[in-house]
Prior knowledge:
Elements lengths: L1 E2 L14 E2 H6 L1 H10 L26 E3 L5 E2 L8 E6 L3 E3 L10 E8 L7 E3 L3 E2 L16 E9 L4 E11 L1
Parallel strand pairs: 3-5, 4-6, 5-7, 6-8, 9-11
Antiparallel strand pairs: 1-2, 7-10, 10-11
Amino acid sequence: MVIRIPERQRGRGWGRVLSRRNVVTGAAGAAAAGAAGALLAGKAAPAHAATAAVASGAIAPAVVSLADAATVAMDASAGNDFRLTLGGNRTMGTPVNPGNGQQVLFQVTQGSGAPHTLSWSSAFDFGDGLPQPDLSPGAGQTDLLAFVYNEAGGTWLFVGWVGGFS
């Protein structure tokens, strides 16, 4: 994305062409990027998990496919965008190697024979104001669930859900 400033504005301190990179990586942009990091930005993937070249200061989410199993295993250090297709009723196991403040997104898709359920280990904390949602029931439907890791409590706090993508 490039923002071009009209010629008439250049004399008023607007003489620079802005891009997403110099907005986010500039001195003022660093504070804005921290505030705008929001729900899905997550933490940058470790160097061994990165799959794309990224400009300094940018975040490239590492996409991780989770293996379908009765209890689904997850290594939080592998990325922040986890995808799972349910082949039956499953339980999300306790993630290993989390980082304090790490934000993760689960994309959970109903496989054939849906609807399937997904229960969560005790490491996942659903609040009174945002309880565990029921997954979309149709085969091929995808739900997005977001969590933030709280190291002090040793729990993944549920912060958002959007369901019914086809």
